[in-house]
Each structure stands twice: as C-alpha cells, then as structure tokens.
Amino acid sequence: MRSLWLLGLAGLLAALCALSVTTGSRDVGWADIAAALTGGQDNIGQAAVSLRIPRTLLAVLAGSALGLAGAVMQGVTRNPLADPGILGVNMGASLAVVIGVAWFNIASAQAYIWAAIIGAGCTAGFVYTIGSLGRGGATPLKLALAGVATSIAFASLVMAVVLPRNDIAGGIRSWQIGGVGGATFERILPVLPFLAVGMVIALLSARRLNSLALGDEMAAGLGERVALARGVSALGAILLCGATTAICGPIGFLGLIVPHLCRLLVGADYRWLLPFSALGGASLLLLADIAGRIIARPAELDVGIVTAFVGAPFFIWVVMRQRIREL
C-alpha cells in the first residue's frame, strides 16, 4: 500500500510539473513546450516556457529539501512543532547572508551558500542549547519558544543591517519573502552538490531516526550512539536548509506541514516518511507556486507568501491538537 501511495505522489508531482510549465500570466500549448525544450524561442509562448522550466526545477528541489529537512528536524528533536522556520534556522541563514552581503561584499553563489549553511548550523545549535536549559531538557514547547524568539530577534537584526544600505535594501527585501521566480540553470547549478549531499545524509539517517524515536536510553541500549546520530542527521537538515535559503530566501512552514501530512499516509517509520516528505514537499511548493501565479494574474505572489497563508493556520492547529511532549 505504501508503495502505491509513493507512486501516486510521484505521479502527482509529474502532473504538477507539467501544469507549472503551462500555467502563468500566459498559458501555452504543447507545441510551444516541445519547441522550447529543443531550444526554440521564436515566440512569446516559447520564451515563457524557457523561463518556467528552471523555475519548476528549483521549486521541486527547494520543496523536496525543505520537506525532508522538516521531517529530519522533527525526528532529531522528537518535536512535532519542529520546522526550519519555527526553529529559526531559515532566519539564521538569512542573517548570515545579509551580513555577508552588507559587510563583506560577497557576491558569488558559492559565498551565499556557505554563508547560509554556516548561519543555519550556528542557529540550530544555539536554539537547541537554549531549549535544553532548565528542567525537562529540550521539550517541544521550549524549543518552539526558543526558535520563535530567535527568529524574531534575527529578523530585527536583518532590518538593522539592511536599513542603512539603500543600495542592497530592495534586493534583500525581495529575497526575504522567499520565492522561486527568476530561476535560471546558472543559479541552480552551484547549489546542486550541497542539496545532493544533504539529501543523501538525510535519507541514510532513517534507521538512526527510528532509533531516536524510541528514546535516548532505548536507542543507546540498541547500540546507537545518540549524540553522533543526532549530529549526522542534523547536518543533513542544515545543508538542505542553508542551501535552499541561499537560493530561494526563507520559505516557512513547508517543513512543518509536509511531514505531518505524510505521517497520515505512512505512519512514523522514517524509512518511508523521509522519501514521502521529499516528494510531498516538492509537490506542495510547486502547487503553491502555481497558485501564486493564478491568484494574482497578471502579476504573481511569491511562494513564501502562499505557504505562510496555509502554514500559519496549520501551525495553530498542530499546537492545539498536539498535547504530547515528544514524538
């Protein structure tokens, strides 16, 4: 049954990719799509398809990365509220990039990516440390509060860094919304190795996450090195979050929504949950991008706005529904 659900989700993603290429301010036919795939740009329709193909690819990559990272973070922290946005990881990556642009004049794609990954890693460690203080250790509530507080503080710091710099303010504010518009293959290529390594590490962490779900003492009794398991799994999530934020900006709530929906289909076994979360994240982000193009025609809404509209009520529902302290 799970295999059929996985095939169905892959089919849904393929259908959304086709819809993404054909839908926008100008609808195009299959003849224009076929011509654009062979490099043709003889009319406006073919030119539009040439722009939508890398945009679709970026949405698939970013969505799968964020969905996978959210599932891993929930497993590492055993926190049903864990998400790259809620835990402040995306905003930490954003702050690092903004500081790099404003103070160190970084301009290359590699510099953006490394800055974002370092910022994401430092923020993840900081939030987990703060959330672990006091009685009870790193409970879901304490981690969520530490993450939200850190995210708000870092957002204020981003504004403080950007405000005196009118030369970069416009571009930074647009990037902070989170979106996949303007994607090109040249922009996507530098981030592919980081996403590939992050996805491999995350997918190979399934057995470790299943052990961690039993509790630290039980996992240690089964021969699992708990600290190493958490560290390696978190590294995969940090690479995915940092690389995605560098190229798309911070996109919130996707890593929270997707793993919860996938658990309804496949349960809590991470051997199935992780690939489902990757496909589900790609499908949801692509659907959000398509919806943003349709709702605001002939303009468009960035995916960061669409996911926020969907994710905020979902977050409230999870908070009200989840009375357990850990997964």
From TrEMBL:
InterPro entries from the UniProt entry: ABC_BtuC-like, ABC_transptr_permease_BtuC
Q: Name one Pfam family in it.
A: FecCD
List the Gene3D superfamilies hit by this protein, alphabetically: ABC transporter involved in vitamin B12 uptake, BtuC
- Can you say where in the cell this protein is located? Cell membrane
**Membrane topology, record value:** Multi-pass membrane protein
Q: Which UniProt keywords apply?
A: Cell membrane, Membrane, Transmembrane, Transmembrane helix, Transport
User: Which residue ranges traverse the bilayer?
Assistant: 55-73, 85-106, 112-131, 143-163, 188-206, 227-258, 270-291, 303-320
Spell out the family assignment given in the record's similarity comment: Belongs to the binding-protein-dependent transport system permease family. FecCD subfamily.
- According to UniProt, the name of this protein is ABC transporter permease
